[in-house]
Structures are given as C-alpha cells and as structure tokens.
Amino acid sequence: MHAALTGRPVISATGLFTPPESITNEELVASFNTFVDCHNAANADAIAAGEAVALNHSSVEFIEKASGIKARHVMSKAAIIDPDTMCPRLPERGNDEISIMAEIGVAAAREALERAGRRPEDVDAVLCAASNMQRAYPAMAIEIQHALGIEGFGFDMNVACSSATFGIQTAADYIRAGNAGSVLVVSPEITSGHLNWRDRDSHFIFGDVATAVLVEDAAIAPAQHWDILGTRLKTVFSNNIRNNFGFLNRAAPETQGTADKLFVQEGRKVFKEVVPMVAQMIVDEAARLGIDPASLRRLWLHQANTGMNRLIAHRVLGHEASEDESPTVLDTYGNTSSAGSIIAFHKHNEELAAGDTGLICSFGAGYSAGTVFVRKVG
Ligand code: COA
Fold this sequence. Notes:
The chain is α+β, with helices and mostly antiparallel strands. 33% of the residues lie in helices and 21% in strands. Residues 288-375 form the Beta-ketoacyl-[acyl-carrier-protein] synthase III C-terminal domain.
C-alpha cells in the first residue's frame, strides 16, 4: 500500500495491443459470397422446391454505409476468411503456456505501465474486463497479474461492451475508498470468437484488440494524467443483443455452432433504444458534475456504429460533431466491444491541452452504459 494517498482517482496511462492481421470489407465479402454461392449450389434442389431459402450476398457498400466499418483486425485471419471454416482457429495451449487472452492483455498492460513509468510491483490490483472470457477459472485477471509480476489481487468482470467503463468505475472506487493506489483495467477482446461469420446481418461487425487503462491515486500519478471527474453506470435488461453460449450448453455437440450460441442482435431496435438512453445519461451526468455538455472538448464514444455516434454526439454537444470532437476508430478496428472507447481515447488524447474536459462513454448488451468524465492535467 502506498503512503499519503488522496482518494482522488485519475487515468495515469493507457495501452493498446493491435493484432497485426486485418480483414478489409472486400476480403470479407468475397469470402462470405463464396460461402453463399456454395451453400445455394449444394441446396439448389431444395431451394427450387421451396423447401429451403436461398442465402443472399453481402455487400461492401452496405457494410460501409450502415456501420462505417472498412476493416477489422483479427487474431486468425486465414481461417476466418476461408469459406469452409469462417471462424477463428486458435490452437489450444497447454496449461504451462500463457493463454492467448492473457497474452494480448499483458501486451496492452505493459504499454500502459511503461507510459506511466510504473513498475508492476507498484500495482495493487488487476481487473480483466471484457465481453468474453476464455475459460471459467482461474480468472484471466489472475493470469495477467501473474505474468506481469503484480502482487495484490485480480478478478474478471463481464458487462459486454461496457466492461471497460464498469472496470474503470470499479478501479476508481478502490482508489476513492483507499483500498488501492494503482489498478490496471485490462480488456482483451477476441470478439471474432463470438461472431457468427456466416450471418449476413452481422458478419462485418466485430474485430479483435486489447486495451489497458491504469487508474491510480492522484498522489502517485505521473505529472501528465487525466483526472476522473465522475463515473456513472446504468443497466436495463434487453434481449435485443444476446449470446446464449455458456457452460450449461457445452455438452451437446449438435448444438455447437448454432446461431444463438454466438452474438445475435436486433440491430434496428438497439439503435433506436440505446441512442436516446445514452444521450440522456450523458446530459444528466454532466448536470450532476456541473459540466456544460456543449463545452466538452472531446467525446471518446463506444465504437459500434458511426450513425449512433453521430446522433449521440449531436444530442450532447448541440451540433454535428466533427471528427476532432468525436473521433472514430471504427473504420479500421470495427466494433471491438468494450475496448472501442478506450482505443479512441488512447489514440486521440495526447494533443489536448491541460484543462480540457472530455468523456469516455460505452454502451451495449445488457443494455449497459458507462460514462467517465475526465479533465487533462499537466
Ligand atoms: N449486405 C447487404 N445487405 C444487407 C446486409 C449485408 N451484409 N445485411 C443486411 N442487409 C440488408 C437487409 O436485408 C435489409 O434489406 P431490406 O431492406 O431489403 O429488407 C437492409 O439491408 C437493412 O437491414 P437492417 O438490418 O435493417 O440494416 P440497418 O440499417 O439497421 O444496419 C446495423 C444494420 C447492424 C449496422 C445497425 O442496425 C446497427 O449498427 N445497429 C446498432 C447495433 C449495435 O450497436 N449493436 C451493439 C453491439 S455491441
């Protein structure tokens, strides 16, 4: 435990791991359409007899217009775009090797620690906050903690696309309560594993990445950091984004790969219901903190869909947001679940000036949403 802590949480630094491989919309659609053609040819008689429905082609134009996504990074490109496989193939590792989620989480965490000038032994806790965990136990956070050589404790938390902001509030609460001085929030998101790459409605949505956020007491933070002015979380139950995969349905091979054990959504409903909920939440939280939403220098929003971000930013700022006011990483990363707003923050905060106020905001399945208002210091 550190001496003379203030109980004031700040973001000391962030880290990012980006998989080297990336799939363009053109590559994705070519693979998907080959799969569709093969499927339709193999089922031609049943389709002609009206006993089966022909599948439709996907389109690069639709994907870009509906979502803003142009490419996505992945951990296993060849298998995903192979029309005979169309899912990641990440070989299982032995128990004496680091698991892949921990490995990419560690890479992001190391960058955050390096940027903050922090040694692992000075960190008190690790939270692994992500949409999917590779296994039930031991917790991914404990493996990451072990790999980095951190003492103290770690645990996993899953709040889908809002996992990182929920992790930041949890870390901030440890700081506020004086239970920790330095907490790593790590979000390894291998979302290619929960995406149904054969589903035309959603096959373009997700990408893989890992982020890390070092939340610390102001007393030990580096000179340049972001004060956390306030955090707020919200959940409202909805079936409109759902994934039924779980340990109780693992036994039946005939159910493996069926669509509801992967990501499914009612995209239109999500769009309509989440935009007003999140915009209102931001405005209410700004009022609570005495911040004029129109004065926010930058919004680092969850990266699911450019249309949603445009509407939310407009409602918050009172005008159409520029790329400078609400930066996008969706075009090259796709939706990276909880990591999206953190990638945007990581890539687009350094040029801001001391005193600038901004907002990190997530939203997604649950529904779940989280806001973290921050102000630059140093
Ligand atoms: N290629 C070509 N056409 C496609 C297509 C594809 N891959 N997928 C769907 N279409 C077609 C549909 O068949 C439909 O055609 P129709 O009008 O002839 O029936 C049309 O495009 C519109 O489909 P729809 O699903 O209503 O598209 P949309 O405009 O709602 O966009 C999403 C789909 C998913 C991009 C959008 O709804 C969205 O982003 N919603 C929010 C999702 C979200 O943020 N989820 C959170 C996840 S964490």
